[in-house]
Design brief:
With 170 residues, the protein is of the alpha+beta class. Helices cover 19% and strands 41% of the residues. The chain has two domains: 43 residues, no CATH class; 96 residues, Immunoglobulin-like, CATH 2.60.40. Strand 6 and strand 7 form a beta hairpin. The radius of gyration is 29 Å and the shape is flat.
Amino acid sequence: MFKRRNKDMVEVKKTPSEIQVSDLWDDFDKLFTSFRRDMDRLFWDPVLPSLLEDRISGMGDIMSMDLEDTGDKLILSVDLPGVSRDQTSISLEDDVLTISVGGREEKEEKRDEGRFLLKERRSFRSTRSLTLPEEVDEEKISANLKDGILRVELPKKSPKKKKVKKIKIR
């Protein structure tokens, strides 16, 4: 038995042979709409401002990266809005480049009397690792952080010449 309400909100029971495809699509649409509304409420509810701030600022769990191969070097660009040099560290171990950022922000608003109307503190930490596709010259790596974009230049090691060995056919 399939239960459904008609236009007058009276429950109507139908047997499987009486069910039409449009009835199923209507029910699916209502279910999806309800699910979407619940998910919107979960992620955009003002009760969760810290989650919302992390998602909007991009510092939640991921830093946007672009890796470019120019032939003689790899260039990595990472978006780090609002992050300073002293809040950033870069390391390379076994062809894995790791970028870590972290810090503490404090925002304060006062009235003339000196009472706090608003004082907010926020700590943030994020790490991202990337396995490099080629060996790089560790001594020549350079990095620059300007306008919220970290640019890391990774010169490639001199390519080793591959030996071609001829094999005799017997």
